[in-house]
Amino acid sequence: MSFTRIRQERLEQVVEAVSATGKLKRRAEIIMKQVVTFASVDFIPELLGLHIEAQPDGFYSIQTPYGNGRGRTELSIGDTGHQAIVHIEKAVCNRLDQTEWHPVWALTVNEKGVFAGSDTENEFAFGPSSDESVYEILRSISYSIAKG
């Protein structure tokens, strides 16, 4: 493995790490709280068979008719700067009958907005009326676990 010297402008990104990552983590938590709350609305479990619940360890448990999954938030620096990525993973059994977690989708929160994975062109609209975006995220989670 080869390592090189990191350019100065990239090193500057970590100077405000505590503030930047804290804000993005809180924003990701707020968005996921909206997703969890909307998932419990009467018609979602009936329509999608989807149930999402926040866990004390920071994970989100996900149940669908297509299998179980989980969500977990990771902080990092991407091409556009600091980001919080909510990874959606599907539980699958390997040949030894052990559970493995396979990535199936992601929700990226950065300074520019909220996006599906690395697609920074099509922002999810969050604000006073974000139900449509939350519903799209719920369907994306369900579809991704089904496609898994």
Report on the structure:
With 148 residues, the chain is α+β, with helices and mostly antiparallel strands. It has one domain. Helices cover 34% and strands 34% of the residues. The chain has a 6-stranded antiparallel sheet. A hairpin with a 2-residue loop joins strand 5 and strand 6 (113-116). Helix 2 (17-39) packs across helix 4. The radius of gyration is 17 Å and the shape is globular. The two termini are 31 Å apart. 25% of the residues are buried.
Q: What is the distance, rounded to the nearest whole angstrom, between the alpha carbons of the first and last residues?
A: 31 Å
Query: What does the main sheet amount to?
Result: 6 strands, antiparallel
Provide the low-confidence segments as ranges: none
How many domains would you count in the coordinates? 1
Radius of gyration: 17 Å
Short description:
The protein is of the alpha+beta class. The chain has helices spanning 8-11, 17-39, 43-48, 131-147; strands spanning 51-54, 60-64, 67-78, 81-93, 99-110, 113-116. The chain has four helices and six strands.
Topology:
Elements: H1 8-11, H2 17-39, H3 43-48, E1 51-54, E2 60-64, E3 67-78, E4 81-93, E5 99-110, E6 113-116, H4 131-147
Antiparallel strand pairs: 1-2, 2-3, 3-4, 4-5, 5-6
Helix pairs in contact: 2-4
